[in-house]
Amino acid sequence: MKIALAGPGAFGEKHLDGLKLIDGVEVVSLVGRRLEPTQAIAAKYGIGHACTDLAEALAQDVDAVILCTPTQMHAAQAIQCMNAGKHVQVEIPLADSLADAEAVLAKQQATGLTCMVGHTRRFNPSHQYLHAKFATGEASVQQMDVQTYFFRRQNMNAKGEARSWTDHLLWHHAAHTVDLFAYQAGPIVAANAIEGPIHPELGIAMDMSIQLKAQSGAICTLSLSFNNDGPLGTFFRYICDNGTWIARYDDLVTGREEPVDLTGGAASANGIELQDREFVAAIREGREPNSSVAQVLPCYVILDQLEQQLAL
Hints:
Strand order of the largest sheet: 8-9-10-7-11-12-13
Strand content: 15-25%
Structural class: alpha/beta
Order of helices and strands: EHEHEHEHEHEHEHEEEEEEHH
Number of helices: 9
C-alpha cells in the first residue's frame, strides 16, 4: 500500500514512525508547507517524493493519504483526496465546524472510500483495555474526570516550533474527550461549557470547562487550559462501579497508582501506530474502520452545540 502524508510536523512524524513498522506499507510522497524542511524529513524517512502541493502528491501512484495539516484545512483536503479516488485518514479534528464535518461524511458516503478520523484515544492501549471491560459488563463508567493541559501562549507545536495556524481548545483538544466519553459510556445527552478570557493576540479562549452526561447516566468533567505551567498532556481518571483507573496516553494505572499490564497481545503499545494499523487494515479488508467519519460525527454535533452556548 502506497501512502502520501501531508503535514510533516510534530504529529506527522509520529505517524511516519508508526507507518514504517507496518508490513507492506510505503510512504511515497510527503507534502509540507515549505519545500526545504519537507525534503529534509523525506530524506530522513527515505521518502522519494516531496512537494508543497497536495494535488501534486495525489497525482503520484498512491492508494491513501494521511492528513496532519492545520485544522482549518482538514475538511477541504479530505474531500479533495476522496475526489481523487484516495482513501484518507484525517487527523483530529475532522473539521472546525459541523457543516464541514457533515460535508466530509457526505463525500465518503458518495464515494464509498475509507475515511477515518484520528481520534487516537480510541486506540491507546490504556483506553482499549478499559473499553473491553465496559463492553463485557465487567465495569461501567460512573464518572470521567479529564484534564487537558498545555503551556502554549504562542503558536507553537509539540516540538516547540512556530505554527502557521492557531490551535483551539474546543474543536481540537475537547474533541478527544467528547468522542472518548461517548465511546466508553454511550451517547451524550447533555453538554455544557464555559470559557475563560480571550487571548488578546491569539483570539481564542485559553481556559475552558466542559460537562457531559451520557444516556447511561455517566458524567464527565473536562478541564482544558493553554495556561498550565506544569505537567503537560491529557490525563483521564475513570471512576467506575468496579474500580478506578487513570490513563496517561498509552499507559494505565489504578486509582492507587498501581501499574496495569497492557501487554496482552496487541500489535503495538503505541496508540498512533495502532490507529494507522486500523486504517490500513480497513482498506485492505474493505470494511468500516474504528473512528470512521460516520462514527465520530456525533462528537462534532456536541462541539457545535457547545460553540453555540459559548457564543451566547
